[in-house]
Design goal:
Radius of gyration: 15 Å
CATH class: Mainly Alpha
CATH superfamily: Homeodomain-like
Largest sheet: none
Shape: elongated
Number of strands: 0
Amino acid sequence: VENYNRKVRVDELADRIGINRSYLAKSFKKLMGCSPQQFLVNLRMEKAVGMLKNTDLPVNQIAAQVGYENPLTFSKIFKQRYGISPKNYRESAASFP
């Protein structure tokens, strides 16, 4: 959870802990209810929402801080998840303290 902003690959994680990649993915999904990749996206989006609500950082800086090298990728994933762009989310969140 601490390294959510770093580039994380399931096969590297599996190698580090000494288990098969597919076993890790299946075990993780059984325990957490989603794939490791989806868990990471969920965590990154939660962190981004907090930053959009509580900071004045530009969206591209928030994207980088939560682990997205490309701010357009971040914005696309954010919009798919919340149905609104990060910028518009921040504006609407500011209307409701």
